[in-house]
Every structure is written in structure tokens, then in C-alpha cells.
Design goal:
- The two termini are about 30 Å apart.
- This protein has about 300 residues and is α/β, with parallel strands linked by helices.
- It is globular and about 60 Å long.
- Strand 6, helix 7 and strand 7 form a beta-alpha-beta unit.
- It has two domains: about 130 residues, 3-Layer(aba) Sandwich (Rossmann fold), CATH 3.40.50; about 140 residues, Rossmann fold (3-Layer(aba) Sandwich).
- The protein has twelve helices and eleven strands.
- The chain is about 35% helix and about 20% strand.
- A six-stranded parallel sheet has the order 8-7-6-9-10-11, sandwiched between helices.
């Protein structure tokens, strides 16, 4: 949604947004200068703890916060039943995809205004079209812009040496079947060492931490990062020579900074949800291509000298 908000700000620099977003990535939404309020939602966590009194207290508090403001437009860009339900809790005219455009057709019945957008478009372009139609402007000839690269709030973790040449390896995702195996990373990391580069390995949970520690213990040029905030990771992305990673939101953050790199899609198709940058500096590999180490290295290593 960042490029869609940037489009809207192009036509109306004074436009303001409140943004409901899953708590894990709420920090990213706050980076855009036209976002006033970020309202975290915890659907992923709540649905695992529906029997908990604390869960229902949090849901009640969320609904109360959402109702504190009356909005000119309430727009559901996700197009799922769970997000459509949230729109009904907000005060304003409800907009979303029509039943032929939406991921879950039943969700379209929650909206007062239904917008047709081709399902053949990339998800980012669909969001841009949705917002443009809801707010009555055209995105023809508007460049892709995430609107967060100029922000000066990004600071790297303290006591971390980033003066040497390094890349970032986003080695983990929420789904293990979308990851490269440790064996493939073990084959890839030495090829980075031959180029004189360190590889920094972030993590977000215990399983990912153990993966990063394992790789760091095996390769002298690999480093398991300390626990980082998204703003700290943003600073590291900006300072890195390049990035490589799996089908994960962190690769989309790299795209927002127009950082060069390679995104790997072992089991998913990048055509509709792959990484998009303003100048196509991140290449999405996957789908019909075999993501063996030699093929990926041959695509990635030239980026280090470009």
C-alpha cells in the first residue's frame, strides 16, 4: 500500500491516512509521511488464542480505537473476509474490490462502494488502482514510489560494525517450504566470501535465530544479527551493497529503498506478488526456474561489482 499512498499524496499533499496493519509490520506503516496514525491489529495472534480473556479485551480496545475517528473513506485493500469485517467497525463510507476482483468474493458484500480491478495485475498495482478509483485520480504515467526512502529515522543497531563490505541474507520466512535449505545457504555463503563480503543474517523468532546461528557458526563471513527492530533493519538495508532473500516482507522493504538484489521464490509465483522496485534493481527468481546455487550465484555476484 505504500506506493498507493504516495500516489494519493502526489495529487493531494495534505491528504492524511490512518492505517490498520498487522502488528508485526506496524512500524513500516509509520514511516510514510502521509500516515498520521497506525492502528495495529493482531488477527494472526488472536485467532490462536480465542479462548483467552486477554484476546477479547484487546479486540474490544481495538474496536474502540477504530471508532474514535470518522473517516471520509474506509478502504479495504486486502480483500479478505477478516479485513472486510474490520471495515464494518470503522465509521465512514466503505470501499473495496468488487466480487470479480477480490480474493474472497464474499468479502465484497461488506462494502458500500465496489471497485473493479483486474486480478491479472501485480498486487501493488491493484492497490494503486483501488485507491486511485476510490479517491478519483489517475495513476497513468505516475512512477512507482514507496515514499519512505527519504526518512531519516533509520538507525543501525548499536555496536555493530557496518564499515566493512556486507550483504544481507533474508534466509527465513513464515513458511518453511518457501525457504532455501541450510544446505543451499551453506553452498552459497562461501561464494560470497570469495568476493570479500560478509553476510548478515537477521531473524524474527526462535526457529529463525537457530538457523542464523547455525550458518554463522559454519562460515567465518556470516554473522547472526542481534534482535533488530524494523527501523534498524531498514538502516542496514540502506548500508548494504546488496540483499538476497526469500519470499518475505523484508525483501519488499528492500525494494522500497531501491536496493539491488535477488528475491527467491522456490514455491510461489513472483508474477503477482514479487518484489517491485522503481528501477527494477531487484530480480525475482522462481516459478519455472530452478533455484540451484550456481544459477542464483551467477545472477547475484555481478551485483556486487555493479
Amino acid at each position: 500500500m505504500l506506493p498507493a499512498i504516495t500516489d494519493a499524496a502526489h495529487y493531494n499533499p495534505e491528504i492524511r491516512f490512518d492505517w490498520v496493519v498487522e502488528e508485526a509490520f506496524a512500524e513500516v506503516a509509520s514511516w510514510h509521511p502521509n500516515v498520521d496514525l497506525v492502528i495495529p491489529v493482531a488477527i494472526r495472534r488472536w485467532r490462536k488464542q480465542l479462548a483467552s480473556i486477554q484476546t477479547w479485551r484487546e479486540i474490544s480496545a481495538f474496536k474502540k480505537q477504530l471508532r474514535q475517528q470518522s473517516y471520509g473513506n474506509v478502504i479495504d485493500s486486502q480483500g479478505l473476509l477478516k479485513s472486510a469485517v474490520l471495515t464494518r467497525w470503522a465509521d465512514g463510507e466503505l470501499w473495496g474490490y468488487d466480487k470479480n476482483s477480490i480474493t474472497e468474493p464474499l468479502a465484497s458484500y461488506f462494502y458500500q462502494q465496489k471497485i473493479p480491478v483486474s486480478r491479472d495485475l501485480h498486487a501493488i498495482d491493484r492497490n494503486r488502482q483501488l485507491l486511485a478509483q476510490a479517491l478519483s485520480y489517475s495513476i497513468d504515467n505516475l512512477p512507482l514510489g514507496y515514499g519512505i526512502a527519504e526518512n531519516n529515522r533509520y538507525k543501525p543497531p548499536k555496536n555493530l560494525n557496518i564499515s566493512d563490505k556486507f550483504i544481507i541474507g533474508f534466509h527465513a520466512t513464515s513458511r518453511e517450504d518457501k525457504e532455501w535449505s541450510l544446505d543451499l545457504w551453506d553452498q552459497f555463503i562461501p561464494q560470497i566470501a570469495k568476493q570479500g563480503y560478509r553476510i548478515l543474517l537477521p531473524w524474527g523468532n526462535e526457529r529463525e535465530y537457530l538457523r542464523a546461528k547455525k550458518l554463522a557458526s559454519t562460515h567465518t563471513n556470516a554473522e547472526c544479527l542481534p534482535k533488530c527492530s524494523l527501523s534498524e533493519l531498514a538502516a542496514l538495508i540502506q548500508a548494504a551493497t546488496a540483499v538476497i532473500g526469500m519470499d518475505t516482507g523484508l525483501m519488499h522493504i528492500a525494494a522500497a529503498f531501491n536496493k539491488k538484489g535477488i528475491a527467491l521464490y522456490p514455491v510461489t509465483q513472483p508474477t503477482l506478488t514479487g518484489v517491485l522496485t522503481a528501477s527494477e534493481v531487484i530480480e525475482s527468481l522462481g516459478g519455472k526456474e530452478s533455484l540451484d546455487v550456481d544459477f542464483v550465484a551467477a545472477s547475484f555476484i555481478p551485483l556486487l561489482s555493479g
